[in-house]
Design goal:
Blueprint: E1 2-7, H1 11-18, E2 32-38, E3 47-52, E4 60-69, E5 73-78, E6 85-93, E7 96-104, H2 114-137, E8 146-148
Length: about 150
């Protein structure tokens, strides 16, 4: 799953918002609660726990930043094989930022049709998340995402 959006704000502004694992932009329906955040000075090794807020399915995990390059990239590895690795890339684009979110599931979730199911669910969540980040960083601009595989 890969999604890209243009945010009309400097790379550092967008990066600074997204580097905190507790950050959830307004307008996003996140069904998870983030707890036990342990940040490192270097970014790599920052970790946190999360648990689903849905009453039907209790799903929980532990994530850690395995790559952290300021104003360029953050890779978050989850203990959940469906969530897998999520990389957010930040690139200057005109007067703003090209923000890309890419996810790779692990284990059985890598194989069709489970991969397509996971990509569909994660893609819908990523579209909403990226649009909400855009709306919060540049509130007067309409949100657009482009889907890429």
């Amino acid at each position: 799953m890969k999604r890209t959006i243009h945010v009309e704000a400097p790379v550092q502004t967008v990066f600074d918002r997204l580097k905190d694992p507790r950050y959830v932009p307004d307008g996003t329906t996140m069904h998870f609660e983030v707890t036990d955040v342990k940040e490192t000075d270097q970014g790599v090794g920052t970790s946190y726990n999360w648990v689903s807020k849905t009453p039907v399915v209790q799903w929980e995990g532990f994530d850690v930043y395995t790559e952290f390059v300021p104003n360029q990239r953050i890779t978050d590895r989850s203990s959940s094989s469906m969530a897998g690795d999520i990389t957010m890339s930040f690139e200057a684009e005109g007067s703003g930022t090209k923000l890309t979110m890419e996810s790779h599931s692990r284990s059985l979730w890598r194989f069709p049709p489970l991969r397509q199911l996971a990509d569909l669910a994660k893609g819908m969540t990523a579209d909403k998340f990226l649009a909400a980040v855009k709306a919060e960083v540049e509130p007067s601009a309409p949100a657009e995402t482009s889907k890429k595989r």
